[in-house]
Structure formats: structure tokens, C-alpha cells
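Researcher: Checking consistency across runs. Here is Xanthine dehydrogenase again:
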Amino acid sequence: MTTTAAPAVGSALPRVDGLDKVTGRARYAFEHTPRDALYAAPVQATIARGEVDRVDATEALRRPGVVAVVWHANAPRLAPADDAELAVLQSPRVAYRGQYVAVVLAETPHEAREAARLLHVEYTAEPHDVELRADHPKMYRPAQVNAGYATDEEHGDPDAALAAAPVVVDATYTTPAEHNNPMEPHATVAEWHSGGLVLHDSTQGASALRRTLAALFGMPPEQVRVIARHVGGGFGSKGRAHPHVVLAALAAKQVGRPVKLAVTRQQMFAVTGYRTPTVQRVRLGAEPDGRLAAIVHEAFEQSSTIAEFAEQTTVPTRMMYAAPHRRTCHRLVRLDVPTPSWMRAPGETPGMFALESAMDELAAACGVDPVELRVRNEPATDPATGLPFSSRNLVACLREGARRFGWAGRDPRPGVRREGRLLVGTGVAASTYPAYRAPSAASVTAGPDGDFVVRIAATDIGTGARTALTQIAADALGTAPGRVRLEIGDSDLPRATVAGGSMGTASWGTAVVRACHALVAELDRHAGRVPAGGLTAEADTGEEIRGQEKLARHAFGAQFAEVAVDADTGETRVRRLLGVFAAGRIINPVTARSQFLGGMTMGLSMALLEESVMDREFGDYLNHDLAQYHLAAHADVPDVQACWVAEDDPHLNPMGSKGIGEIGIVGTAAAIANAVHHATGVRVRDLPIRLERLLEHLP
């Protein structure tokens, strides 16, 4: 088979699903309404710890349209779950405020909500503990942290090196709980057939959700089908099963009718995960020229009493900078709170805020330019593992960013640049994120008309995965993108890893390329003739990925920020953001730029706005809606630019690409905090940078 089409990868191909989205033809999970469907209104616990004593459904069942009320006493039994968060309505125990304790099913959503309001639930409340403290007496060392990383890591003698270091930075940084708020709230439509369970769900991973639900309901995976053809954002919150999915399936099984369940924005703050708050102590020991001798980074986090989730907060510190003596560790406390989960770049986002803020403090203490400080501490190999990097272009990002940003003209003294009542400053921080791949499978069919159909259970969560995979397949087949049709978002298709960890395109793309190459070889054997029924080839990358060469694979970037702080009010505005990234081969510059800018905007929100506030008395997050949980809007991001340096890395995948969905958020908050210090001379170590955290220190 000869290649005649121009390369598609690297071109600015318009979104292949763009017309469907702007015309409303793209259907999301809750828009599927099976015949005879009921609507579910979950009932949430109003205590933070204790037990449900009694559920009185008498008044609720009298309401027009109400079909059933399900709670722990009458719910179908589930198989034991590895994640106790998914043991929905299996026990009277309440582990956190907002936990599901019942669900009302009715003919319309209005009837269901009204009946849920009338459901009478009696509790025995117990004293609760919802406050994260680094000195909490129940703080412990978990067996491992997210993504399977070791909890602690140590090289050399960091305590002795710190004691001997001429320059030492020792500071504690905190980040608050933060909640994902994708545009499309979580939703599930569950329907049982004679063949099993069918779910339309807003999920980042149809294959993974299928396995989870099959295990819970004691079924073979092939008897569960999860469909997620269009997903309106996730940011990690839809990467794993949450209680609402189980509740919908459980309710549908109980009543023998399809059930539609949409999680409200307010409910999302309890049942769909969030980023754990952190308390982080960073200690850096260095020579007067800024060269690091020791790094110690300790993180204290929270999880729920029913499930353990430990974010890998200090893991990026293990490989960022050269230092012969180092220690990183994580400690966790199980509180009466909802279970944290993934939120865009878990680990790297809060961890790099602390590390990159500390690096800025070290630069000031040594009198070294912050860009130059990072260059001086560039490692030759991965400091944690000793492995060579497949590619590492952090220095190139820092140099190019400094050039584009105009860093050379910067006066390093803090608090000296004024424009009327505005204090103006600039800051820099590094970014990083691992270049993961996970096993996936794909099939490709050639039709007699010259078109191709690519099938894989990947999920496009709004990132442009359909478009990127179309380009990858077109090049592997030697055809034009218009001849390729993609079928994704269905667990009945060849298995695919979750759309998370910035590994979707790399993982799915590898499988698609291998399947396409297999089909090309098959077509060559058939002399290019395609039978009337088409010709299909398949591939599974499990063996390839398990056998890949051991290397340190990471994307890198540099973030530059300019801020203006009102000296009278303390109001901080970001004037400019620039991100320069090294992320391998860019599949599509339009979708890539969108992902970088989206991550940077989310990082700006983290720096200045986002904060979930815990009410210690009631054990609940007070600001659980978009009126009170503040996010960056257009006026907050007037000038945001993203670009990338050329990077040829043959050790990644057939496309030579690195994930870009998450690295944009990493480092942004630190760059802004560092710019605030440069503007004002005030070091804010607790996010977000609120007015009162500046005002008391401003002249």
C-alpha cells in the first residue's frame, strides 16, 4: 500500500466533531432517555459521622408519580468492593456529610426531587473530625501513593547536608481542598436488559467503569456495556467510578425500569471527588551560588475513613533538580470527609507549587536569578532512579520563555516597580508531568469504498481526542483524514485506558498505529483488493508497553507571570501568562494550544480564587456551588500565551508525543505567587492569594 496523502499529524486539522457539538447533534449521557425511564433524586446524609436509624418513606411514597424509595434496608446487595466508597446503600453507617443514604424514583425529575425533600431520615450522630493538621495524632504513612509510587524516598544524608549548608530555605506551604467543576455535571442513565446492564455515563474511561460495575454486581464484564460518546469535561473527576453510578444501576435493578440520575452541581462537592488539601514543608540546602546540596519535601494530606487515596504530592520533587541528599515523604490522615480523588495533574499541581515557591525563595536568598538557579540545578539523569531521560528540555523552555517574556530587563529587587497605586512584578516556575502509556487495543477496517473505520473504547472529554486519533490513523494508513471514521466511547469496542494521566493519546494512538500497520500489511497481501465485507486488523499493546525500555519519560515546561497588586486593596490581577513547553511531537497545534491555555487558566484559578471551605461544625464544604466557589473568567485572563519548543523523542510511542492535558496547570500557581512576591515583597505561602493575606503586609 503506497502513501500518497500529505502528513496529517502536526497539521491544524479542525475538530472532526466540531459541527456536531455546535449544532447540538452530539448527545451527552443524560440526553439519552430510554422508554419508561424513571428519574432519580438522591438523598444525602445531613450528619458527618454516625448511623441511619430509620427511614420513613410514607409521605414521599404518597406523592404523585413516585414509584419507589430505596435505602439500605431494601437495596439490592452488592459484592464486596475494593473501594468502600462504592458500597452504596449497603449499610446504615454514615462516613461523611453528603453521603448517599437513599434515593427516590419518580416519573419526572420534579416529582422525584419533591418526594426526596419529604423523605424523613433519622440519625444517631457521632462526634466527627474533619480538620487536616500536620500534627494530627492519627497521621500515618500509607503503603503507597497514587499511581503506585513509593510513599517515601531518601538518598544520602539530607539532615546532615541541611545542617552544613551555607544557605537554607525552610518553609511551609498549604493548598486548600479544590473541586473539579466540569461544564457537564456527572450523569448516568442505567438500564437492565436480559443480557445485562447498559449505562450511558459521563465517564473518562468506559472500559475501566465496565470492569468496576461488573465486579460490584457479580457479572462477567461482557454483560456490562458503558457508552460515553461525548463527555463535557472531567479534569480527573470522571476518571473512576463514583457512588452516583452505582446508585443509578442499583435503583434500576430494584425497580426493573431504566433510571436517569444527574448529579447536581451542589451534590458534586460531596460525591465526585476533589483535590485533597495539603500542608507541605520544603527544606532546601544550597551553596551560596544556589547549587543544591539537599532537598527535603514532606506532604500531609487527608482521605476519608472508608477509602484511602494518597496524592503523590512530593513525587515530582524526586526528579526535578540535582541534589546528592534528598528525602521526600507523604503522610495521610483518615477524616470524616468525602474521599479525595484525581484532579488535573494530581501530585504535580500542589507539589510543584511548594517546590517552585521554595526555589524562588532560594534564588532570593542566594541573590541568583530564578531562571539561572533552575539551570544550575539541572540533573544529567533522573535523580530518583538514575535512569537517563528519554528527553529533557526544561532549560530550553526556560531560555525561550525568558526571551519571549522579556525577562532580561527585570529588576530583581521586590516591591520597586510601581504604576500609580499598582505594584507590578514578574515570576517564573518550572512545570513537569510524566509521559505515561498504558495498554490498549484497537481495530481498523478497510471498506471497499476506500474508507476506513477505526474502533477503540477511548473517550474524548473535550480535549480533541477524536481529531488527534483521526490524524494518527490517517498517517499510519497513508490516507487523508477525511477517509477515516472513528468509533470511540463504548466499552464494547476494543479496550482502552482511561482519559487521564495525560496518557490517552499516547496509549490509544499506539494501539491505533499498530492496528493500522497490521491492516496495511494485510492489504499488501491482498494486493490492495478489499473484499465486499471489508478487511479488518487488530492490535493490543500490552506486551509492547510492558517490554518498553526503562527510561525517565517526562514533559517539561516553564511558566512566566506578570501581576499587578493594588497597594490599597490587595487585589491581585494577572496581566500576562506565558507557558513554554517541551512535549514531544505536537499532534495538532490547535488542540494543543487549547489544552495548554486551559491548564494555565486553571492554574490561575488555583493561585487566586479556588478554595473549598470546610465547616468544622457540620463537616461540610460551605461554598458548594459556582456562586461561591470562584473560578477564573475571561476578565481574569487578559493575555495568556502558550508555545512549545521542538522536541524529537524516539523513546515514547510511534507518534513521538507526550501528554499535554495536565502540564499546563503545573507551575502556574507558583509562577503567580512568585510574581506577587516580586511585586510586593510579601511571600504568600498559603493558597489562594486572598486580599487579607496581602493587605496586612503591604506598606
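Researcher: Does this match what you'd expect to see?
Model: One thing to look at in this run: The mean pLDDT is 97.
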